[in-house]
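Z., the sequence and structure:
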Amino acid sequence: MAIWLSLCGAIFVVAYLLGSFPTGYIAVKQLKGIDIREVGSGSTGATNVLRALGKGPGAFVLGVDCLKGVLAIALVYALFNFVGSSELIPTTVDVKLWQPWMVTLAGLAAILGHSKSIFLGFTGGKSVATSLGILLAMSWQVGLATLGVFAVVVAISRIVSLSSISGAIAVSIFMVIFHQPLPYILFSILGGFYVIIRHRSNIERLLAGTEPKIGQKVVTETETTEQTV
């Protein structure tokens, strides 16, 4: 049992480190020689990178940040496949019950890593792209449905933060609609709430009617910013 718990603990640590990988920071630093945390909102997410470097780098950061979430969940599946085939899983462990909880905890670790990166002094992005990757790996139906909500809202409003918040709210509904296990539903509630909290400054601007839209020029560097993913 000690070996099994150690392996589970290692997965959580690796999931956090995957989430912590500072894609946006590295991209902007390498291509423009500046610290993305000193640009716009200070977030390392894809939308802030979009504003700093343009569509190409922004899309690249979005893709990599999403992939981080996918890999964090894939590690859990790989662990159960490997350990199961090697008969290292203790007989007292109910695999069908244990795996969803492991997936949920690894997903939360990756989300935390993205927004509180150990490589950036516990700063980071708003965990939207990484959360999407996690959802796609958990349940592709829920992931695509949530992405659909994001796409519709952003097409209508042209406001990324509003679209991210809408997706964070909708994901719990989709988890129930698609009959996902309880741990996944809890993940959607906790993860969605965390994403919304990370957007609290955006919410203040939305209520004030000052939140910029996609392509809108940012007036100030640190306060009036385009939303970050």
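The CA atoms of residues 111 and 127 lie 6 Å apart. The longest helix spans residues 55-85.

Let me know what you think.
H.
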